[in-house]
Write a structure and sequence with these properties.
The protein is an alpha+beta fold. It has helices at residues 9-17, 20-27, 35-40, 96-110, 125-133, 141-146, and strands at residues 2-3, 52-58, 64-72, 79-87, 115-121, 137-138, 152-158. The protein binds coenzyme A (COA). Coenzyme A (COA) binds at residues 22, 84-87, 92-98, 120, 126-127, 129-130, 133, 169. Residues 22, 84-87, 92-98, 120, 126-127, 129-130, 133, 169 line the site of coenzyme A (COA).
């Protein structure tokens, strides 16, 4: 796992283009290489947001298999916000998503955050099932009832104090 920079643009673009279904369900369009630029910038978090971290998980062969975008102390000082968690199709179900989420949680905790937050497209049932299984809950049930198909609902999960029983999901070996 490592932080991605502008030098990784082509690798990120290839990753995004390999999963058109995700862009379709979230944005009702096909992915384009320029989506990598948007991810590399902090634009999605709005002006004044703290610096975000774009993290990539690579397999032993050097292929980018997972992407995590998150920001600490946003939108509140005690929150870490997950902007994107995406695993390459064909590499899912192997613990990569859980490992990236654990990384975000550890890093957010180290920066004083006490909860993780995220937005998920209301109609994205598969993603919402994943987040529920990871212990996230809807922030507002009212919002859930009124959200249109492309609107997002906000979910959150408390960050537990670090303990010996903390579960980081199935072991996954990722090269640096
Ligand atoms: C959601 C996603 C990131 C999960 O990554 P992953 O590497 O496959 O997840 P893991 O292997 O760590 O699985 C963790 C758990 O979630 C479950 N899970 C994984 N994908 C799931 C899915 N699509 N639907 C329901 N459950 C799922 C696994 O069965 C596992 O459960 P378990 O621990 O009880 O066995 C991945 O499926 C993905 O990239 N989906 C498309 C993008 C997306 O929806 N991102 C999230 C919303 S932005």
């Amino acid at each position: 796992m490592r932080t991605l920079t502008a030098g990784d643009r082509a690798v990120i673009a290839e990753f995004l283009l390999s999963d058109p279904a995700h862009t379709r369900i979230c944005f009702d369009r096909e992915p384009v290489p320029e989506d990598a630029d948007a991810l590399l910038s902090s634009a999605a978090y709005g002006a004044g947001a703290p610096a975000h971290a774009l993290v990539g998980a690579f397999d032993a062969g050097g292929t980018l298999v997972g992407l995590l975008d998150w920001v600490a102390r946003w939108p509140t000082p005690a929150s870490g916000y997950v902007g994107l968690l995406q695993v390459r199709p064909g590499r899912r179900g192997a613990g990569i998503g859980t490992a990236l989420l654990a990384h975000a949680q550890d890093a957010a905790r180290a920066q004083g955050c006490r909860q993780l937050m995220l937005s998920v497209i209301a109609r994205h049932r598969e993603a919402r099932t994943f987040w529920c299984r990871q212990g996230f809950q809807l922030l507002s049930a009212h919002r859930e009832r009124t959200a249109g198909p492309l609107e997002a609902v906000v979910m959150h999960r408390p960050i537990p104090a670090r303990g010996p029983e903390e579960h980081h999901g199935p072991g996954v070996t990722l090269s640096a």
